[in-house]
Amino acid sequence: MDVPDVRPYHDWFAGFCRSFATPVAEDQRNLDLKEEHTGRVRENALRIAADLGLDEQGTALAEIIALLHDVGRFPQYRDYRTFRDSASVNHAALGAKVLIERRALANLAAKDRDVVLRAVTLHNVFTLPQSLDPQTALHARIVRDADKLDIWRVFAEILVLPGAERPSAAGLGLPETPGYAPEILQQLRRREMVRLKSLGTLNDFKLLQLAWVYDLNFLPSLRMVRERSIIDRLSATLPGDAAVLSAVDAVRQYVEERIAERPGA
Ligand SMILES: [Fe+2]
User: Fold this and answer.
1) Radius of gyration (C-alpha) of the chain in whole angstroms
2) What is the spatial distance between Cα 32 and Cα 12, in angstroms, rounded to a whole number?
3) In angstroms, what is the span from residue 128 Cα to ligand 1's centroid?
4) Is the Cβ–Cβ distance between 6 and 64 less than 8 Å?
C-alpha cells in the first residue's frame, strides 16, 4: 500500500493560511489561533495514532486529516467574521468543499481521498453515523479526539486572560454572567453530550466542553485529559456551588473509570 508523503500537505496548508493574511490585527489574531490549533491537533493525532499502533499509511492519513480538518475556518472567518457555525456556515462541510475545489488531495489514492474528505466533513458532527466504513470511522474518531483535546487547551488558556486580551471570536460571543443552565448539569451527571443550541452563557459553554469527555473514543485521549488537567482547568472558573461541583465530579469519575478499565492498555 502506498504511504502518502505528508510534506506537500504541510506546504499547502501554510500557503493556504498565508493567502488569508489580513492587516487587521484582530482578524489576524483569530486566524492565527486556527493555524496554531491545527498544529496542535496534528500533534495530538500523531500521539493517538502512535498509541493505537497505526501503520505508516494510517499514521500519514491521520496527519493529513489533522492538517486539513479546519481549512473551512479561513473562508468562514473571511466571509462572516465569526467561528460560530450556527451564525454562518458549517465550517467542516465548507472545508471539504475547499479541498475539492482547490484539488488539494489530487495526489492521494482515490480511496484515501475519500477517507480524508469524509473525516473532515464529520469532524464536527454531534455524533458519528453508525454506518461508516472502518477506515473512515477510525480516522473520523482520531481527528475528533485530537480536535477536542486542543479546543480544551485553547479555551482553558483564554479563560485565564483578561477580557480585552481574548481573541474576539473564541468565546462564541456568549455573556460572561455568573449563572448557568441547571439542565446542563443534569446532562453531565447522566453522562450525556450537550447540544450547542442550549448555550446561554459562557459558563454553559464550559459545561458543554466538559461533556465532550463522554464522546472521546480512545484511551490515549482520556489519558491526555488527565495528564493535562483539562477538567480542573475548565472548571476552575465555574461557580463553586455544590450542584456544579458534583456534576464536575461525575465527569472526573467517568475519566478515571475508563482509564481503570484497561490500565495497561
Ligand atoms: Fe473544526
Assistant:
1) 18
2) 16
3) 15
4) yes
